[in-house]
Amino acid sequence: EPEVTQTPSHQVTQMGQEVILRCVPISNHLYFYWYRQILGQKVEFLVSFYNNEISEKSEIFDDQFSVERPDGSNFTLKIRSTKLEDSAMYFCASSEGVSGNTIYFGEGSWLTVV
Amino acid sequence: KNQVEQSPQSLIILEGKNCTLQCNYTVSPFSNLRWYKQDTGRGPVSLTIMTFSENTKSNGRYTATLDADTKQSSLHITASQLSDSASYICVVSVYNFNKFYFGSGTKLNVKP
Fold this sequence. Notes:
- The structure holds two protein chains of two kinds.
- By secondary structure, chain A is an all-beta fold.
- Chain A is 0% helix and 50% strand.
C-alpha cells in the first residue's frame, strides 16, 4: 500500500538553529499537511497545502514556519529559529482531495530542541 | 469556538469485551468526522470517515455512529483484541475549508 514517508525519524537540534523536515507524500495526492503533536498532548493542525500554495494554516504556524514543495515529490517544513517548545512529533500527511477523502499520515519526525 | 471533546480520557477493558468511545464537537459548519487509531509513537491511521448524511459506518470490528443534530459521534469496538490498545482520535473538519480539529483522544488499554 502506498505510504507517506518522512525523514528524519528523529532530530536533535540546538535552540535557535534552523530545521528542515522532509516528507514524500503519496504520489497521486494533491493535498498536503503538516501536524504537530507535543508529547502527551493532542495532534494539532499546522498547515495545509494545495496547488503550490498554503490553503489553510493555524495560529501555531507563525513566521518561523514555512512549507515548500521544491520538486514534484518532496514537501518540506522549515522551522527557522527553533525554540524549546518546538520539541514535538511532526506528522506529514496527504490526501487525494478534501471532504470525504482519507488523509494518510506518515510515521512522524521527532524533533528535540535542546 | 471550534472544539472536539472525547470521553473517556482512558479506558481499560478485558480482551474480548466491547467498548464505546464518545466524541462531541462544536465545529461549524460541519464537513465530516473521522476516527483514527494511533499507536504510541506512530502516525494516526484512518478507521472511518463520516459525512453529514451518514449515521453509521463500519470497518471490521469498528463501528462509528454520527448524530449531526446533537453533534455527537461514537466508536464501538467489538470483541476487543490486545492489538486494539492505542489512542483513538476523533477529527472534525470544517465545510469548504481544508482545516481539521482533533480531539485529545481516548487511550484504550486492552488487557488479557
